[in-house]
Amino acid sequence: MRKAFLQLHIAVFLAGFTAILGKLIGLGEGMLVWWRILLTVFVLAMWMAATRQIERINRRAFFKIAGVGFIIAMHWIFFYGSIKYATISVALVCFSATGFFTSILEPIILKKRFSVVEILLGALSIAGIYIIFDFHPQYKLGIAFGLLAAVGSALFPIFNKRLLLEHKPLTLTLYELSGGLLMLTLILPFYHQFFPARYYFPTTPDWFWLFILSVFCTVLLFVLQLHALKKISAFTSNLTFNLEPLYGIVLAFIFFDENKLLHKEFFIGVALIVLAVVLQMGLMWKGRAKSLSH
User: Of 117, 118, 183, 292, which has fewest CB within 10 angstroms of its CB?
Assistant: First the structure.
């Protein structure tokens, strides 16, 4: 369990850099995600082929996995869209609604009992987002994208919990992203009708940042998160990922001076989200201590 938590927190730390990279890459959110997945699939497939880890799966399994890959792709589009149409800080805080959506969606999909504590902790994060939204109406499109990204982030580990029982983490990652790339290629022309791309081919700086994003903040992050999900619940994973905004916001303050764009209400909202994370961790450790004492 301790190793799973370490893997999860390293993944969260890496995730904190993805928003910064999204700001540094000039591509629009649709093409940014398309190139990110393409590079990730290429690097991962080459490495798995060299180490003889590629496994064949049947068509039915591929389409099931590809469906989850599509959720991942759309989650990324909404996340980077939130950054483009608002700020890094606002996008990352909206992402913290993941815990709330997980507390509702996980029991419905997995047919489990609802946890009042999980719903209340998730609602605490929503309250923080509402405070930010109320005082930053100019970011309403970015906030809407951020909340949709949170829904996608909630669904991903819920479905992956089942898939991990049948497939190895690397195999799952490769086929999920390959399926996501295929489906994204089909829908991007329609998406760009509503949200046009500035340009379609990466510039030289874009290539550098895309490589960092694909190798370290996608392949390594995915593998760490999937290994962690073998030992911990989807809700715990998602709530822990609420720490991602803290890493990303600090970096946004350092590199982009975003603190000058935000009011005190923003920090009140962040404080509520941090409180939700701290309370959840406290409850988890309390429950673990009780189980060890019996």
Answer: 292
Q: How far is CA 49 from the centre of its chain?
A: 27
What pLDDT, on the 0 to 100 scale, is given for residue 241?
Answer: 67
Please tell me whether the overall predicted TM-score, pTM, comes out greater than 0.85 for this model.
no
Question: Which sequence spans correspond to the domains of the chain?
Answer: 23-293
Q: What is the pLDDT of residue 293?
A: 46
Over residues 124-172, the pLDDT tens digits come to 777 777 776 666 677 888 989 999 999 998 898 888 878 888 888 888 8
CA distances from 143 to 77, 92, 134, 146, 172 (A): 13, 10, 11, 5, 31
- Sites in the chain below the pLDDT cut of 50: 289, 291-294
3 state SS for the chain: CHHHHHHHHHHHHHHHHHHHHHHHCCCCHHHHHHHHHHHHHHHHHHHHHHCCCCCCCCHHHHHHHHHHHHHHHHHHHHHHHHHHHCCHHHHHHHHCCHHHHHHHHHHHHHCCCCCHHHHHHHHHHHHHHHHHHHHCHHHHHHHHHHHHHHHHHHHHHHHHHHHCCCCCHHHHHHHHHHHHHHHHHHHHHHHHHHCCCCCCCCCHHHHHHHHHHHHHHHHHHHHHHHHHCCCCCHHHHHHHHHHHHHHHHHHHHHHHCHHHHCCHHHHHHHHHHHHHHHHHHHHHHHHHHHHHHC
Task: Give the pLDDT score at 234.
Answer: 66
